[in-house]
Design goal:
The chain is an alpha/beta fold. Helices cover 51% and strands 12% of the residues. α1 runs parallel beside α9 and α6 packs antiparallel against α15.
Length: 474
Amino acid sequence: MNKQIETLVLKVAKLTRQTHELGIPVMILFEGIPASGKTRLCNELLLTLDGKYSSFIATKSPSEEDLRYQFFQKYWNGLPKKGDINVYFRSWYAHYIDFKENRIKEDFYKDYQTLREQIHQFESMLIADNHEIIKFYIEIDEEKRLEHIREMRQNPLTKWKAQEYEDVIESKIYEANMKAFVDESQDWEVIDYTNREHATLLMYEHMIQRLEAAISRHERKCTERNGHFTEGFSDDAFEMMTDKVKKDAYDQQIDALQSRLTELQFALYERKIPLIIVYEGMDAAGKGGNIKRLRQKLDPTGYEVNAIGAPTEDELNRHYLWRFAKDMPKSGHIELFDRSWYGRVLVERVEGFATVDEWQRAYDEINAFEKMWTDEHAIILKFFLTIDKDEQLKRFNDRVENVDKNWKITDEDWRNRDKWAEYQEASLDMIHKTHTSYAPWHVIATNHKKTARIKVLKHVIRTCEAELFGVMHD
């Protein structure tokens, strides 16, 4: 090995041990036309990295099953842990070009500009969360490239390799698309592989520059955890007046509404439309009972319920949206979230589990995250269940006194009650900043549980009917 390269290899190995110890996730992208040399450069780098915390990920053309999920879902699912390194042999850029040039999901994306925006938002979220994204675009003299391809074709064991990505995207088309990305951005390192040794040298020099910068930024980052709440904020932030559904009317309506929702579940499956329903609200507001009535007649093979608790160690070691993205439904299925990604701007804000920078930027991140799914015609409905303070105390005491409900009340519930005003203010900020046309909030008063259940069922049915059949309700 060239002595200069050997020195750089040792430096990169040392720096990646530091990023691992500091918990900085590193994502390294290799793009380039077939036989450009990216395979060899990729492998050169992999031999330098510690295999205990580095992974190699190759992007292929999507299978039929892949297409039942959102464009970015597999990349969300495979995000590196804090301190780990992912090396992408082709990435979401090649994935985008595949979609665009082969008109994949054309009905959703039309001119595919939306996907370009998703790429920007995806990377921005990760970079803000301390991920270091390093991008290499590999070029080579065309005569040298064709020589490589001829050599592969002459060997029966590597003949298949000569085709590589050409079966999916013609080289000239891929190159034109990638050049557009490279030319409009300053974050690509373009390496000419015509001289292998020089290319390897450039790769390691760029890695060192980026890793040193990432370590320096990590040491300067802000960790302020003050919640920024308004002193003397009103305890009565939500309007609780509501007409009550009488018992006879409830019994008549609930059965018919649940039956209609079952019919719509099958229609959603047939049309391959995913439905995502999010529940947030104060403790004892009736989220569990509401979800139970919503799912009572549904086909269990077509829905799942995610009851979200405190994050596990594995979840804390990744971007906060990771644990939710991996549970998003495929087309035609229903996912119910009993609490959700909104924990970042509610409990994590109030309790100081997230820094000020983390929860303040989360509003825009969440809006972008939800739009990724609605861009592919998913339905997202968000319900915030409200309750007044006196009714909550009544329900808490009922749980304490009722042996069958003791398990529902915890010390944490009482602690949260002491921060009622802070939770109310955080909830109002959340609704104001994340209520969008594509993923709206519905605030449901739940002092009367039966009324709340009817209202939620009606909202879900109306929204699904509008999406499926264009039926609009007053």
